[in-house]
What does this fold into?
Amino acid sequence: MGEEHHHAPPPVQAPPAGPPPPNLALSRGPVWNPAEQLLQLHYCIHSNPSWPEALLLGFQHYIVMLGTTVLIATTLVPAMGGNHGDKARVIQSLLFMSGVNTLLQTLFGSRLPTVMGGSFAFLLPVLSIINDYTDRTFPSEHEGLRYIRNSRTSAGDLKVNNSQHNIERGFRNLGKAKVLDNTRLHNKMSAATFNLDHDTIIVKLAVDAKCVGTWCSREADRRNGLFSPISIVPVVCVVGLGLFSRGFPLLANCVQIGLPMLILLVITQQYLKRLHHAAHHVLERFALLLCIAVIWAFAAILTVAGAYNTAKAQTRVSCRTDSSYLMSSAPWIKVPYPFQWGTPIFRASHVFGMMGAALVSSAESTGAFFAAARLSGATPPPAHVLSRSIGFQGIGMLIEGIFGSVVGTTVSVENVGLLGLTHIGSRRVVQISCGFMIFFSIFGKFGAFFASIPLPIFAAIYCVLYGIVASVGISFIQFANTNSIRNIYVLGITLFLAISVQQYFVTNTAPDGHGPVKTDGGWFNDILNTIFSSAPTVAIIVGTLIDNTLEGKSKAVDRGLPWWGPFQNRKGDVRNDEFYRLPLRINEYMPTRFL
It folds into this structure.
């Protein structure tokens, strides 16, 4: 029997490697690289248009911020028992302090071209204070007394606690050292509060603004931040989207003028400017003013012609150009002065509600600062800049409390959107707008003339400007891995919960300010109802929590932290100093921790 031999089969030769598969993306068109700064701006943060253009653009910023100012006064003053004259004075105080706060922020705070306006976050706490004084306490013939008492109580609760907390937290984080002696500061603030005698009106919520922003900025300085491109996208998005109730729902109160304003603005600013080269320059920058003038005149014609004589009461109030009674009620000249309503009253039971409103204002301002940086051609604000802005915002709130504004301050989102609409992010333009705010707050009749613009016209403008801010938030996603399922999950759940939670709390809040959280502790109710009625606050809580705990370290590259990190450190990027350094060589005379 022959011997059998088993031989291994010869190895199979691998086929020669072929050429790599074609990149279909390249074959279908160009691939856009991430852009740290927008290249289509005509003027960035530190470049300036000519003086005539700058003056007109500054006036445009003033007109845009008027809508929110009038809406706040229209909402609160009647509920407090005030009359048309009180409303005019409150608008003057809000305008005056908006000018002062905007100057503080653009000169020494964030240094971004952001207008500081009134914050709706304080409506619920103020309504809670109002509800403490019933009609039985102040009979109908003493409405003025009820208004004054409400104002006094708001003053003490809002002013001292919030401004103290804001200044303390902001400057403490700047230095990470003994910048302020907290105990000494608290004692001084408390003494100042309780030494106030008890006699007068709504002085103002000094915003605790940015506890959230401060907390996040401190951590950012430590380890590239709790924020990342993934967590900042939903925050900035809902800063715009969360204000949808001030858009078309407010416009629909008078579609006769609101809808034409919206259509005319889009056609004029985006389409007509492309018909002729000479018109492009003018319409891109000043179409908003032109459209307001045209539709306002149209509304006046309808009013004089009696178009609303048989309409419902709500329609007449929204559509008529003479329904605000501001022109007849405003004084010709009145300079806002400290304690103009009387000295504030401090009530500890309302302090916590104001703290909740401060958190909300912080979240809104934080998102708006990032949007403003993007639309003005600056890099994302570093941690120390956010902290610095918090400190100066607290100083501004303290001054506001003294001068008697109605609500706390926050970044005006509509004015941030205006930067993108006009393609002009100049800081000087916004500083010029402060002059208009202060001027028209002193010369009341002139300010009341522009404040008489019907609110549906402003609502049509907000439909465009809030949308721009929301879309700017989306642009931050380019610095992270958009193909990561993990990132998609974080973005999706944060965006949805931010809008959904806010909608639940807003729709279940009664006109008197009582929200869905109802316990025996009124202060606890005010905190939760205020916080969760804000989409940006929910977005910060949910987004930073999930983004940092869901494989936060191992997915740092996917989250965009290698790009994000240098901008969050003081000297991480050379452009940080270019955009955010203090003016007039102040940095040479101040400790480094304050810069």
In short: Strands lie at 116-118, 409-411. Confidence is low (pLDDT under 50) at residues 138-145, 176-224. The chain has 25 helices and two strands.
